[in-house]
Amino acid sequence: MASVQTTPFQDQRPGTSGLRKKVRRFQEKNYLENFVQSIFDSLEQFQGKTLVLGGDGRYYNREAVTIILRMAAAAGFGRVLVGQGGILSTPAVSCVIRKYQAFGGIVLSASHNPGGPEGDFGIKYNVGNGGPAPEKVTEAIFAKSKTISVYHIHEGPISVNLDIPGQYAIGSMTVEVIDSVRDYAELMEQLFDFHQIRRLLTRPGFSMRFDAMHAVTGPYATEILEHRLGAPKGTVLNGKVLPDFGDGHPDPNLTYAADLVKILWQPDGPQFGAASDGDGDRNMILGNQFFVTPSDSLAVMAANATLVPGYKKGLAGVARSMPTSQAVDRVAQKLGFPCFETPTGWKFFGNLLDAGQATLCGEESFGTGSDHVREKDGLWAVLFWLNILAERNESVGSIVRAHWKEFGRNVYSRHDYEDVESARADELILGVNQQMPSLPGKTFGRYTVSFADNFQYTDPIDASVSTNQGIRIGFSDGSRIVFRLSGTGTVGATLRIYLESFEADPAKQGQDAQVALAELIQIADRIAGVKKYTGRDAPTVIT
Which residue, of 61, 76, 185, 189, has the fewest CB within 10 Å? Predict the structure, then answer.
């Protein structure tokens, strides 16, 4: 073991999902090593225990895996379970941590951000329940990173072949290269009716497409959908994991998954379509010529959960992030289980899941999951929808429209302004904050403001408090505008504006969301000066 002198970097504060920077920043001397050592220095009583390690296969993944293996050996871990080829999807990491009762895990990913030498890289730590480290842990890591003076690493040759499953050794530490897909696929078979889904996927006249976007879910989707469930070869598109994601943007939305959308919008196209992101924790659900918003997806899943074997006993509760629409709230109210509103970030769901207070969770940013792991899970959500389709024998559009008729439609959209100059984005948020005391009671057209606040969350399990989690402006008819700066980008700031209104009249529920929300869009600009501060006439992405 070698002890290497180093100096701190001041930009290693983990964001919503770990530390994300440009690849070239991580390649700087000691940058990755400093952060990994800061993780290990923040942990206690892990010597001799098991660490799980894997990533989404993006550029620099394999190099980072090797460095972390060497450092884990120097730190005193007894065993590391690493995915074959250094590959593990984010939900698979959670699955493996929980199945083998590991001490924790390290995920290498920048999620939906672009890859390649000029792209992004990321790293985050997951705790023993399989979920992302809570804020008290990430703050401790950041504090260590600001004072670090030495890191420890095993030097000399090692004989670990990441491409061949088996057991290897680095010093006294065992390295076990595991099949990246097997444990996760076996968990999916326990939750879903594979027999029914297989009948659906092999039925004459039914077809689907899954776009893996040259990201981590390629091998998972190929094994589960094509091999275990019998979908025709070619059902999985862009299934080969590439370090630059095929020079694409692995974000499963209408903008970046445009090729899949084009296929599904053909009148004679597939009946079902789905996509996942860089590390496999997000999902987009499509029917033929029909887009399901993530908020509606969560609500439909909650309303139909008992059709799925793993959830046939019903739900203990549901949880959604604050910017997510209130559609699932209506399901919870009617079916009689609690609904929790949390800040953005999957780590906030962990306590609710561990305490048995929630079964399904969701975020409007294309993330859905349950208590089967402690991460959002893209392919799991796709299988959940396939199980519903197999049981109801209806189209995606018919199921969602029937849901709206029963519960009402929460018309919803998110407008993203990416790579905004950080100072200008901060000015915008400051300006809205300064207006908040005077907003209640103000009228904008047919909308009257009933409240305006900066969302604060008190965890009902451990009483921890999280402040400044996004600006909420609520109107007397239940409509909302939410302003929030995202914590997932690596360049500038991403301003996200969430718009929501409620439509109870079935005759009006089919209206295009942007048309139905047009007045709220204008109000958001009037309050915040969106065009003024961003310098743009339109969002980068609309979902």
Answer: 189
